[in-house]
Write a structure and sequence with these properties.
There is one protein chain. The protein has helices at about 20-30, 80-85, 130-140, 155-165, 175-190, 220-230, 250-255, and strands spanning about 5-15, 35, 40-45, 70-75, 90-95, 100, 110-115, 145-150, 170-175, 195-200, 210-215, 230-245, 260-270, 270-275. The protein has about 280 residues and is of the alpha/beta class. It folds into 2 domains: about 5-80, Alpha-Beta Plaits; about 90-275, Vaccinia Virus protein VP39 (Rossmann fold). Strands 10-9-8-11-12-14-13 form a 7-stranded mixed sheet, with helices on both faces. The chain has a 4-stranded antiparallel sheet with strand order 2-3-1-4, covered by helices on one side. Strands 5-6-7 form a 3-stranded mixed sheet. Helix 5 (about 175-190) links the parallel strand 9 (about 170-175) and strand 10 (about 195-200). The protein is globular, with a radius of gyration of 18 Å. The mean pLDDT is about 90.
Length: about 280
């Protein structure tokens, strides 16, 4: 990775929270690979070959009146990216029962202990959406269920689903880095029932699941929701996240068109995670 050229963005944010968390999540969906929080905001990195001049056009928080956000960007060469990422990666514990940590962190006294190699993939549990999806999985029955983790990132949600008793799990992501990182994390957590697949919604043709987990941005959810719904078994459950509280009406309308019934909402710093059943 030493020869890969990156574009680094230095964001200054006032006030810091929840703006930094929202900004990180939005940048992650836009293709930024990793983030380092600073005293003034956050530094975000994206590969130069993935960068475009309009990369920030869809970052909604930059247009918010609630926060003051400025930025500068420059080209950099990352010589030891993973070392920098590891230095800034902290473990988390969700609802006192699920820990998400790196291999170099001490083990927590929790029922579920997930080890994630802290590379560039989205889904370490630190983002609001992943945190809430972990909460949903902890609260629901997965024993013996077939599960789809769509947009799996690091594979953390698929791994927790197996720990909760799921026995057939597909973890899907179109990003090659996420695909490779999920493979590594599935092996690291000694998972036996997870199949990691590189691709988009097209790979779901003919597949059926008891539970669908989709932590993706709003536009992709709306685009692919019909496909997700068609993959659900009778009496199935779908968990959706990757969007704001203000987006609920359009998401709920799309779900109702697929005969999905709203059941529960979790909210965390403007982000939401919804549960629907068919």
């Amino acid at each position: 990775m030493s020869n890969i050229i990156y574009i680094g963005y230095e964001f200054k944010v006032t006030p810091l929270q929840p703006a930094v968390e929202i900004l990180i999540a939005e940048l992650g969906y836009a293709g930024f690979e990793s983030f380092v929080e600073t005293d003034q905001g956050v530094t975000a990195y994206i590969q130069k070959e993935e960068w475009q001049a309009d990369i920030l056009d869809d970052i909604q928080i930059l247009n918010s009146d609630e926060f003051e956000i400025s930025y500068e960007f420059s080209e950099i060469e990352q010589t030891n990216w993973n070392a920098e990422w590891e230095k800034n990666f902290s473990p988390i514990v969700v609802d006192d029962s699920c820990a998400v940590r790196a291999p170099f962190h001490d083990k927590f006294d929790t029922e579920y202990d997930i080890i994630i190699e802290p590379k560039m993939s989205f889904g370490t549990g630190h983002h609001e959406t992943t945190h809430m999806m972990i909460q949903h999985i902890l609260k629901n029955d997965f024993k013996g269920k077939s599960v789809l983790d769509m947009g799996c990132g690091t594979g953390v949600l698929a791994i927790l689903a197996e720990m909760k008793g799921a026995q057939t799990i597909d973890a899907v992501d179109y990003d090659n880095w996420c695909y490779l990182n999920s493979l590594e994390n599935v092996e690291r957590n000694n998972c036996e029932y997870i199949t990691v697949i590189e691709g988009d919604a097209a790979v779901l043709k003919g597949k059926k699941y008891d539970v669908v987990i989709a932590n993706i941005n709003r536009n992709i959810l709306l685009q692919d929701l019909e496909t997700y719904a068609s993959c659900m078994n009778a009496n199935g459950t779908i968990f959706l996240s990757g969007f704001y509280n203000d987006d609920i009406p359009v998401i709920q309308e799309a779900c109702e068109k697929q005969l999905l019934k709203f059941e529960e909402k979790l909210e965390r710093n403007h982000w939401v995670a919804l549960k629907f059943i068919n």
